[in-house]
Amino acid sequence: MATIHDNDELLLARIGYKQELKREFSKWSTVSYAISILGILGSVPATFGAPLAAGGPATAVWCWFVGSCMALCIGSSVAELVSAYPTAGGMYFVTKHVVPDEHAPIFSWVQGWCNLLGQTAGVSSVAYTVSQMLLACASMNSELVDGKYSYTPSASDTVLLSVILLCVLGVICSMTTKALHRIILWFAPINTISIERTDQTVAATFCICFVLLWFTPDKQPATWVFTRFTDGSGWGSKVFSFLLGFISVAWTMTDYDGTTHMSEETHNAAALGPMAIQSAVIVSGILGWILTVSLCFCLTDFEGILNTPTGLPAAQIFLNAGGKLGGSTMWGLAILVQFFTGCSAMLADTRMAYAFARDEALPFSSFLSQINPYTQTPVNAVWFVVLFSICLNCIAIGSTQTATAIFSITAPALDLSYVSVILAHQIYRKQVKFIEGPFTLGRWGPYINWISVLWVLFISSVLFFPPTVPVTVSNMNYGICVGTFIAGFALIWWWVAARGRYTGPRTTDDIQPVPTEEPGTGYGTME
């Protein structure tokens, strides 16, 4: 019989799993991981052009503000649920404990596949944005010929580089947990300088905002930044164009349970996971808004920057403010942060794939759920994610505009996978006994839960619309096609191979509450 060494292993055992992964993640590496998986300094510049093109500067500014508030509701709802069941499966595992037993298999199956698709689309889209950013840097450092850069990135260049980057990320994520802990511990300090129990000062982000505003001449007035709305989408409605602008904040501020996928490698995960989720959403929401506002003030030539040959408006803003050397230096920091985001996102995705395969929900589950004897990490699951991500990125070979599909499927797939569990928790809360963890929302829980559900259902339907009209083969939003294909495959696999065999996350029947590593020091309850 296996020996249980501490409360983390005891809780995991009572949930129904044996401790197989090594717990090396501490409080600060967990918070660092949560902040890095959002990667504001890289994600905002990478996606700044989408809301800008859809509805102008005011759309970019206010979409981020509203979207961040909604993200806090979703993140808090997720934090409450995963605090009770901190496993590598994240919200997928929680599903089993918020629905009646007879519905658990199909609910878990749908939620797991939806989450896996969203996670993998997130990994592939981050790799794609890093490729875009690297090639934009190459473009703005190329020679000017007749007023134009001699090198302009093509769709095939971007996809090829993204494939290489995905393989590099795969190598990193195949390392031992101790090595990953040491690497990730430095992710957030690139963005922030953390001061325990006081505040978190965002060094790099504030420095870049200051430099951009200081060195950009003829900045736009505040009235233009905060009130200038346009109908750049061509849908004939500034309101609908505004709604399309949510793609940036929706894509960036998601993957809330990414931190929980590392729960089986984290000390005191039931308390630290929720704390990390909320800290990351609050810090990232504030910083992202400040950075977005700063970029909008620097839109000295709106049309020229929007149609920059670098392919990314933010890259042109950096170049205008700092010249080739200064602009490339600041842009390089943003690229580094976005690369770190890719590492964090792939780590979460691979742990989800491992947890899903452990419950025999994937093809070749016995192979994908194996733990490498040397690294003590799920290396097979890592390279499954790499291959899946490469397949998704191939959508963008024909045109950079078709890459919208990768971004568009990420947020809806992930957020819908979260709110499906949140909704089930509200519907069945009187039928299904739910043992709360160290963190709860208290009496505010139902209100926050319902706000999250309604928001995600609304904004997900909007994000599947084509970004511009008239719709063509090159600008079509193929996100709905990707989602439909994966959903069809998952349902066929359910009926052909899993129905009657798959029972949902495999656990023991009786779960008893256990104390955290530090009794009485749980994260807290919102009353």
TrEMBL record:
Keywords: Membrane, Transmembrane, Transmembrane helix, Transport. GO terms for cellular component: membrane. The chain crosses the membrane at residues 31-54, 61-85, 159-177, 198-215, 235-254, 275-302, 329-348, 381-399, 405-424, 444-465, 477-496. It is found in: Membrane. InterPro entries: AA/rel_permease1, Amino_acid_permease_CS. Its main location: membrane. It is a multi-pass membrane protein. Residues 507-527 are annotated as: Disordered. It comes from the Eukaryota. It holds the Pfam family AA_permease_2. GO terms for biological process: amino acid transport. GO terms for molecular function: transmembrane transporter activity. This is Amino acid transporter. It comes from Aspergillus sclerotioniger CBS 115572.
